[in-house]
Structure formats: structure tokens, C-alpha cells
Design goal:
Helices cover 51% and strands 19% of the residues. The protein has 9 helices and 5 strands, in the order βββαββαααααααα. It starts with a strand and ends with a helix.
Amino acid sequence: MYAYIKGVLEIKTADYVVIETNGIGYKIFMSETAIEKLGETGTDVKVYTYLKVREDEMSLYGFNTNEELRMFELLLSVSGVGAKSAIVILSNITPSSFALAVITDDVGKLKKLPGIGPKTAQRIILELKDKLKAIEDTDKDELEEMLSKKEVDSEKVSEAMSALKVLGYTRKEIEKAFEQFDKAGLSVEDIIKKGLLYLTK
């Protein structure tokens, strides 16, 4: 219903903000990290939003970037992970690190997050990697062809591409972004971060 809300930041608390636009104050729940990045009250801000509707409640959740929003939506799709847990997780890991942990089966990194035990970490990886399986097989040959044209670590690029798919980008979008910079010698997370810079332009 709301893609984003743009207006004046009127109130900041530990777990939500109020943004006024056209005389209406929107109460938006956000991660502590996201709230800190918004700046001081009285300034103009833009927040990407997710409207959660239940029988007895309607709540708005806010994010600084589309990647954070996608990560939140992914977390909500995992059984046993609710909106409040997802917001806490967002305060403690970046979208690129989260996507990388999922792709590389890094249970250790995920279980360090508040409220995430070993079983939940394994469930997050299992359920989110399953979402990729359908596109992974169809992209494999095209990805190898793309990699053969450049002297780069194909495994790192493949992992970075898979991680960006977790965040909702298509293969074509990622390939176009990857063509914009030299990937040789970069770590998987650095490739993801650079890719995100071009994908969000």
C-alpha cells in the first residue's frame, strides 16, 4: 500500500519514528541502526515502508534502503520469524552480510544475532536457499559464459550473484552492475557491496 513515506522527521524513539507529511503523522517502527541513520528531528527524510496487517492491528515498518526492506520481507517468509524479530536482526547485520551468510551456509554468523538460535539459523538458510534453487540452475551456464570472459575468481562472483538474488535482484540486473567494476582480487562481500552501489543508482 505504501512504497515509501517522505516528510519531516518529528519524533525519534528507541524503536519507532514519527514522520509528518501533508498534516498526517505516520508512526513507523524501525531498527535502532536505521533510526540512527535518519539524522536529527526537523529534517526531511524518506523511509521505505512495509505495512503489516493483522485482524487487530496495522503497523508500519520502515527502512533506509530497498535492500533492508527486501531482507525484512525475506525474514518474514521464514517460519518462526516475526516482524519484531526481523527488526532486531536488521539492527545487527547488513543486507549484504545477511545474504552472504545464507548463500555460504554460515550458521555461525546467523546464530550470533539476537533471538536467533542454531535451529532458527539453519531454518533461515534452508528456506531462503530453497527460493534460489529454481533460478540457480537456469542461470548456471550463462554465468559460466560471463565469467570465462574475465580473469576473476568465478566462485566468488557466483556467490556474490546468488547473494544479490537473495535480496531480490534479477540475474540481468546483477550482470549489468557487475560489468561496471573490476572484480579481480575482491572478496565476496566486497563484490556484493560494490554491486549494490551500482544496483541502487
